[in-house]
Design a protein that fits this description.
Elements: H1 7-10, H2 17-26, H3 50-63, H4 66-75, E1 83-84, H5 86-94, H6 108-121, H7 126-134, H8 205-213, H9 219-227, H10 231-234, H11 245-263, H12 272-286, E2 291-292
Antiparallel strand pairs: 1-2
Helix pairs in contact: 6-7, 6-11, 7-9, 7-12, 8-9, 9-11
The chain binds fe (ii) ion (FE2) (2 copies).
One fe (ii) ion (FE2) binds near residues 135, 136 and 205.
């Protein structure tokens, strides 16, 4: 599936952080009121940068089908790729060069460290800090030739009706699953309140990293990894009908994590060398030297 288009057409964003900047435009910090509905999403909707983001979502919504998701889940079983330590994976991810606006964009390592440092400063448990550090490592999928639309972007359930709370819902008209009646009822192929563990979300870095870290982090951290891009659920509450009580309980953690991901960016880049020893210790507390990717 990743070869359906020539490479350039598969990669509409000049850098993957363009997607995150767009999330920030949709969910500005000034509107952030956890557990309440935000006032004015979708402001700045038609800025020029949005055309690449729009194209990105056109591809994402068109190609993320039930079939595609199931195929990727089979393809990326951890252990098939390589063995790598967490810090090593951070350095590997950092080779993903962000080529737009080098003055204001952070490297991947810097984003991870800013997120984890902000969590640490607020006195959260060590597993929470570590979750912040590793949350985007699934983006190494980009380095394995996966198209941007199969790595980043807001995630959403496949196999059931698309919520109009998902960004650019009009592009779902291009998705072949739209023509499958059994995929287009409210619950689709799922039972009401079946729990998100039984629901297939669009494929990307969240699900992949969840699978990699599954045996090593507490469940609260795993929920953060797995659902941090599921804005339609954790910000819009548009999928309560598939979530069970346990999901709702765990989503308190997903919501607690989200502002650190979105709003921890500062102009002062973290000092990677200075922080490395602290984080090597923290990593060793939870992860073995090498894990399967
Ligand atoms: Fe992410
Ligand atoms: Fe992130």
């Amino acid at each position: 599936m990743s070869s359906v288009l020539p490479r350039e057409e598969n990669q509409p964003l000049s850098a993957i952080h363009e997607w995150e900047e767009d999330v920030l435009r949709r969910y500005p910090e000034t509107d952030y009121t956890p557990h309440e509905k935000k006032k004015e999403a979708f402001r700045n909707y038609e800025t020029p940068e949005r055309s690449t983001v729009r194209e990105f979502y056109r591809l994402n919504h068109m190609y993320q089908t039930v079939e595609f998701v199931l195929q990727k889940k089979q393809e990326f079983v951890p252990g098939k790729l390589r063995q790598m330590g967490i810090w090593e994976a951070m350095e590997y991810l950092n080779t993903l060069v962000d080529d737009s606006d080098p003055d204001t964009s952070l490297t991947q390592i810097q984003h991870l460290l800013q997120t984890s440092e902000a969590i640490r400063k607020d006195g959260h448990p060590r597993w929470f800090v570590l979750t912040g550090l590793v949350h985007d490592l699934g983006k190494i999928l980009c380095l394995r030739g996966e198209p941007q639309w199969a790595v980043v972007g807001d995630t959403f359930p496949v196999g059931c009706a698309y919520s109009d709370k998902i960004v650019y819902p009009e592009f779902f008209a291009l998705n072949p699953d739209t023509d499958e009646p059994e995929y287009q009822t409210l619950h689709g192929i799922y039972e009401p309140h079946c729990g998100l563990d039984n629901v297939h979300l669009s494929w990307g870095h969240d699900e992949y990293m969840y699978r990699v870290a599954k045996d090593y982090l507490p469940e609260e951290g795993l929920y953060m990894l797995r659902y941090h891009s599921f804005y339609a659920a954790h910000r819009e509450r548009a999928y309560d009908h598939l979530m069970n009580e346990h999901d709702q309980e765990m989503f308190r953690w997903v919501r607690a994590f989200n502002p650190y991901d979105l709003y921890s960016k500062s102009d002062e880049p973290p000092n990677v060398e200075q922080l490395q020893p602290y984080y090597e210790d923290l990593i060793a507390e939870f992860f073995p030297d090498k894990i399967a990717w």
